[in-house]
Amino acid sequence: MNRINLHPRKSAWITLLALSALTAACGGNAERKPILGTSVAALAPTVTVAAPIDNATGVSISAPAIQVTFNESMAPITGAATFTVTCAAPCTNATGTVALDSTNKIATFTLTPATTLSPLTQYAITVTAARSIATGLPLATPFVSHFITAGTSADSTRPRVTATSPATTTPGPTTGAPTNAAISVAFTEDMIPATITTGTAFTVTCASPCVSPVGSVVTYNAATHTAIYTPAAALAAATTYTATITTAATDMAGNALAGNQAALPASSNYIWTFTTGAAVAPANVTIVSTSPTANQTTVCPSATVNATFSTRMNPVSINAANFTVTGPASTVVTATSISIDASTGRTATFTPQSALTSGVVYTATIMGGVNGVKDLIIPANTMVSNLTWSFTAGPATGSCVVPVALATAAPYGMFGGSAGMTNTGINTVINGDIGTIATTTSSITGFHDTAADIYTESLANIGSVNGKIYTCTTSTTGPTSTTTNAVSCAVATQARLDAQTAYQALVAKPSGANPGGNLASLTLAPGVYTAPAGSFLIQGGDLTLDAQGDTNATWVFQMATTLTVGGPGAAAPQSIILANGAQAKNVFWQVGSAATINAAGGGTMVGTIISQSGAAFSTLGNTALVTLNGRALSLGASVTLVNTVINVPAP
Q1: pLDDT tens for residues 138-165?
Q2: C-alpha distances in Å from residue 428, one per residue of 32, 259, 419, 452
Q3: What does the alpha-carbon distance between residue 651 and residue 415 come to, in Å, rounded to a whole number?
Q4: DSSP 122-141
Q5: Given CB 3.0 to 4.6 Å as the disulfide criterion, which of 174, 348, 413, 491 pairs with 432?
């Protein structure tokens, strides 16, 4: 690669402030305007991330704010420029107002008061024709992102702090914190920036005779849910500081922070202490690894592009101007998001909005130099020059199988198709929603949910649903016992349609490897596996799914007829073992007729089972728990459970 020498670093804080002022006057690094006589061509602005992120599920229907973050300051979004939140009919598009924050980089769509989004519905965030203040250029193409709402219950989950820099230690203080580094906090979910960046929601103080920082700047990076406190001057050496995030910080649903000063469900401040050491000496930032690697071939079409740096980076600098991917003839690949991991702050991830094309050579570039990526040291360290590498996409086969989209069916632990669902026993727990489009109350027995709807429970048949039951009939006791809930029925109907679409997508995948009809005692790499005689068994031993270190690894099992797990004999439950990063959310079973899972009870099943004709877990009289880390979705016949625990995988 070509190496370009940087200008000498200036270490004085007064010089930093002067450079910062010059940068601000020129519109910021990411805008790439011609500066001081240079002839760098202006680039169209881009959206770096949406909140909720693309394909997010479980989004609160009462979310007061939906946001997009641009890579530069933007003009007001009016006239030809639009920011919409829409859904397919008969759903009604969201209404609200759009406003930019004080930096003009974060646009917020605020729902009209007293309105909510529709439950379990896919929405599209679309931004068109928004223009840069600096150049007047509009977005090159409309930005589109999608999310799926949660059920009818309002979001009451409080945001938490997942990581801080300097790190939080107990009882503290953390020692050896640099005097010349920014302080950062990563949250568990999307936050409303204005609740953190304005006022005194994020403070750093010290006890007299130390003078607490003044004139510091707090920024928020939506891509990583990270707030960054940048001191206006170096902190004092050998001094203990207290950093505080107050309960003024809220998530997108308006829930106040759950800090470390009180137990849930109460809100509280998050406070930690650190003692400064010496200043960090200037050192060039380097990239220690990339994924895909340079010249790698047969890269999965669903792959993200990653670069790992030598030090914790400033997430604001990891943006669409400084991290690009291009295809043939320098065609720009649009990103759903460009972010840095919150825990280490070292691995940057470019997530393409669309799958890569097999056989195409792509080029990734990380920008160095004074306008490129930076760390959190003040003044910031940079890379000496750009880093560019190329790789070739391969086909979506074998270990490159892409998971199917479940859309509104994703929150369901069980769906009883058009026939219903039955539970026997008192130890059944569904950590998720359940549903059916059946129209008779008797088709649903042995369940109750968090909305206090009960469906024909007895002392011997109690199934706890830690979500909601969506049906097209009435419950025996509870809010929907007198009349069918039309919204609930519509939600269930859409979920069945989405499950059917997912089933068809699994069927449509090209036939895969033939591992034999019995999968017992096998260890299988990611890929598509097709039953040689139409059915799969797991009898006589457990099945191991080995991700080989790839947390996105996906398995699809296609069978024209049945799936049977457990045996031979009544006393031989079988399990599926996930190894080396395998995740339950990425395992799919397409069952042409019915699935029977551990008829004698016991064992752990993994993955999303979508069947044409129902599923049965255990049999009457068994007390040993069957566990499903996944979903049981039937399009037609009912799903029956006996003392079964179902855990819906996280998105």
Answers
A1: 998 899 988 888 776 667 789 999 989 9
A2: 59, 33, 20, 17
A3: 18
A4: EEEEEEES-BBTTT-PBPSS
A5: 413
Q: What is the DSSP code string of 14-38?
A: HHHHHHHHHHHHTT-GGG----TT-
Task: Give the model's confidence band at 6: pLDDT under 50 very low, under 70 low, under 90 confident, else very high.
Answer: very low
* pLDDT given at position 19: 37
User: Which of 621, 634, 606 is CA-nearest to residue 544?
Assistant: 606
Q: Is the pLDDT of residue 616 over 70?
A: yes
Tally of CB atoms within 10 A around 448: 21
Q: Which residue has the higher pLDDT, 395 or 209?
A: 209
d(CA 58, CA 56): 7
State the DSSP H helix or E strand holding residue 633, giving kind and residue range, or none if neither: strand 626-634
Tell me the HSE value of 188 on the side-chain side, using a 13 A CA sphere.
12
Percent of the chain whose pLDDT exceeds 70: 92
Q: Chain centroid to CA 344: how far?
A: 18
* Beta sheet of 387-392, edge-to-edge order: 323-326, 361-366, 387-392
Residue 639 has pLDDT above 90, yes or no: yes
Q: Are 573 and 600 in contact (CB under 8 A)?
A: yes
371, 29 contact by CB (below 8 A): yes
Amino acid identity at 451: A
Task: Return mean pLDDT, the chain.
Answer: 88
Alpha-carbon separation of residue 282 from 260, 268, 437 (angstroms): 34, 38, 64
Residues with Cβ within 8 Å of 281's Cβ and at least 6 positions away in sequence, in order, are none
Lowest mean pLDDT among 424-433, 544-553, 602-611: 544-553
Q: Which residue has the higher pLDDT, 114 or 179?
A: 179
28, amino acid identity: G
ω before 568 within 30° of 0 (cis)? yes
Contact at 8 Å (CB) between 603 and 622? Answer: no
H helix or E strand, kind and range, residue 49: strand 47-51
In the numeric block, which tokens belong to residue 588?
């799919």
Reading the block at residue 7, the tokens are: 């200008």
Given a cut of 90, is residue 136 above it in pLDDT? yes
Contact 124, 85 (CB under 8 A): yes
Query: How far apart, in whole angstroms, are the C-alpha atoms of residue 75 and residue 554?
Result: 43
Q: CB within 8 A of 79, min separation 6: which ones?
A: none
Calpha distance 364→366 (Å, rounded): 7
Question: Which residues, including other chains, have CB under 8 Å from residue 136's CB and lie 6 or more apart?
Answer: none
pTM above 0.70, yes or no: no
Query: For the ranges 14-28, 368-382, 580-594, which has the lowest average pLDDT?
Result: 14-28
Helices (H), 188-280: 194-197
| Mean pLDDT, range 181-193, rounded to an integer | 90
d(CA 464, CA 281): 58
